[in-house]
Amino acid sequence: MGFKSFRIIHMKKNIQTHGFHLVDPSPWPILVAFGAFTTTLGGVMYMHSYSGGGTLLSLGFGIILYTLFVWWRDVIREATFEGYHTSMVQRGLRYGMILFILSEATFFVAFFWAFFHSSLAPTIEIGAIWPPKGIEVLNPWGVPFLNTIILLSSGAAVTWAHYAILANKPRAAQAGLAATVLLALVFTALQALEYIEASFTISDGIYGSTFYLATGFHGFHVIIGTLFLTICLIRQYLGHFTSKHHFGFEAAAWYFHFVDVVWLFLFVSIYWWGSA
């Protein structure tokens, strides 16, 4: 048997006969776990003024960012160039993304629970009224209402990009994604400005704690969604997405729509009702 015949037989033995993706061994899960542990330890040390806490926190955060980059790179390579993301794999990824979004929703359920528990029956320690005495609340029809319009507009833009991908219009998809990212950045900048100008802080009793925890956690989700969609914009520019193969974009769009819905609840309950 010649070398060429042996090579053909060997290649035939490696042909995949099922629709699943048997993932190769990867160093990234244990590396990101180490980065998360380092970040947590460094954060605790920093908040308690231990020497080297800030350095350890920065090191851990850097490890997480690096791991996210190389892990995401590997997933993109497997999905776009190696063909491992079959229809069966994509179905499983969709289920996983739905469950992830549901798990994120439970975070916000806890935050809203804390807010309504304190606001519906305010204790005597805070003056038996809501908002508590001494708290000068933000005007909901100022920056918060403007941010509502901006975030809903960004949700419309990402939907536009989705339909453009389905219609095989790459330039329109790029424009929609660019508009979404730009609007998300404006939202984040306005929320940062709002925090700077607010007359209360996270340490100002239960109102400050629930307000900054809920809105800040949402703002963190907006930043993550912006990064997600920025990667999608780059991938769309590189021609990675087709009308039949674009789950990476779908996952980002679902996540961003979830962020939009949460903001509507935040605006109505915390900004509007909570300040009345």
From TrEMBL:
Entry keyword set: Membrane, Mitochondrion, Translocase, Transmembrane, Transmembrane helix
Example of a GO cellular component annotation carried by this entry: respiratory chain complex IV
Membrane topology: Multi-pass membrane protein
Chief location: membrane
Localization annotation: Membrane
GO molecular function, one term: cytochrome-c oxidase activity
Highest taxon, organism lineage: Eukaryota
InterPro entries attached to this UniProt entry: Cyt_c/ubiquinol_Oxase_su3, Cyt_c_oxase_su3_dom, Cyt_c_oxidase-like_su3, Cyt_c_oxidase_su3-like_sf, Cyt_c_oxidase_su3_a-hlx
Heme-copper oxidase subunit III family profile domain residues: 16-275
Transmembrane segments: 28-47, 53-72, 93-116, 141-163, 175-193, 213-234, 254-274
Gene Ontology process terms (BP): mitochondrial electron transport, cytochrome c to oxygen
Function: Component of the cytochrome c oxidase, the last enzyme in the mitochondrial electron transport chain which drives oxidative phosphorylation. The respiratory chain contains 3 multisubunit complexes succinate dehydrogenase (complex II, CII), ubiquinol-cytochrome c oxidoreductase (cytochrome b-c1 complex, complex III, CIII) and cytochrome c oxidase (complex IV, CIV), that cooperate to transfer electrons derived from NADH and succinate to molecular oxygen, creating an electrochemical gradient over the inner membrane that drives transmembrane transport and the ATP synthase.
Assembly: Component of the cytochrome c oxidase (complex IV, CIV), a multisubunit enzyme composed of a catalytic core of 3 subunits and several supernumerary subunits. The complex exists as a monomer or a dimer and forms supercomplexes (SCs) in the inner mitochondrial membrane with ubiquinol-cytochrome c oxidoreductase (cytochrome b-c1 complex, complex III, CIII).
Name the UniProt record assigns to this protein: Cytochrome c oxidase subunit 3
Source organism of the structure: Entransia fimbriata
Phylogenetic placement of the source organism: Eukaryota, Viridiplantae, Streptophyta, Klebsormidiophyceae, Entransiales
